[in-house]
């Protein structure tokens, strides 16, 4: 592996052990999260986050996919990759057929700014497509201010996100020897919004405001809208990324073909996503594909917990213009 530009300097604050003073909580997965710069950062990646913040230099033609966890990251990675690379790879030979979307579009804080890196930044083909779960407020300055790079953000109805994360985290409980019931966990969640990269309201509102202030740089998407008409959003994405479909491509049904390639049904049945695993990840690829249903929360949440979460969502998002349907 070539010497990486990912870690140019050691971070002195880490060596001094200053993270020890940050508020710490156990997340429902059993792993610890630290309250760092206003968000709950998984402890195992806090050093990666600092390194990403200190060293990442955005390029003008970068696309950064930002998301709140369990809101459609895997799907959007596939869609953006397919749209941006459609002239390089015919869809029938797409790398998406043999590699998980998280491999093709690496996370900056999980895959690149880690020691040792799983992916070297120099090896990411240009124009780069990279991703992050960091809130807008915590992004490196070079993404927010110094660059014309594009940010595409996706979020989701917080009740479905909560249930999706709950299932994902339950899969980790055996590894962390921790157990908590859904009811117990939801009470804690309602009080403090403890969840990796949360609370959800700060995460969603940060990108919501940025998309309103800089609509040419930040595109804001909701999972439910994509579920309703993904072909429409594939076209929107291509325009936003500066690679609109030609009349011929539209006539030949390219947006529809991309939608089918990246569909839940297609991706989840690929061998790589049924049995594969990302290098050194504690998660199997199949864990990124569960049900992909809107409104699945109603199958799991008691009415009192659902009401509490709806109230939380209403109170926190009120007045922002950002809304989610819950019935
Ligand atoms: P991540 O943040 O860990 O990367 P992310 O991909 O954002 O996860 O979210 C996973 C959710 O997206 C799962 O939702 P569920 O638990 O409610 O089922 C997963 O099923 C769903 N998902 C994955 N791929 C697709 C896809 N191609 N189309 C629609 N939904 C998808």
Would you write up a description of this structure?
This protein has one domain (33-317): 3-Layer(aba) Sandwich (Rossmann fold), CATH 3.40.50.300. Strands 5-4-6-7 form a four-stranded parallel sheet, sandwiched between helices. A three-stranded antiparallel sheet has the order 1-2-3, with no helix packed on it. Helix content is 42%, strand content 10%. The chain is of the alpha/beta class. The structure holds 3'-phosphate-adenosine-5'-diphosphate. The site of 3'-phosphate-adenosine-5'-diphosphate has 21 residues, from helix 3, helix 7 and helix 14. 3'-phosphate-adenosine-5'-diphosphate binds at residues 67, 69-75, 160, 164, 167, 262-264, 267, 288-292, 296.
Strand order of the largest sheet: 5-4-6-7
Output the CATH class name.
Alpha Beta
User: Beta-strand level of the residues, as a percent range?
Assistant: 5-15%
Mean pLDDT rating = 91
Unreliable stretches (pLDDT < 50, length at least 5) are: 1-12
Topology:
Layout lengths: L11 H4 L8 E3 L5 E5 L2 E4 L3 H10 L7 E5 L5 H12 L16 H4 L3 H5 L16 E4 L8 H4 L5 E6 L2 H19 L5 H11 L7 H14 L4 E5 H6 L1 H11 L6 H5 L2 H8 L2 H5 L2 H5 L27 H15 L10
Parallel strand pairs: 4-5, 4-6, 6-7
Antiparallel strand pairs: 1-2, 2-3
Helix pairs in contact: 8-16, 11-13
The structure holds 3'-phosphate-adenosine-5'-diphosphate.
The site of 3'-phosphate-adenosine-5'-diphosphate has 21 residues, from helix 3, helix 7 and helix 14.
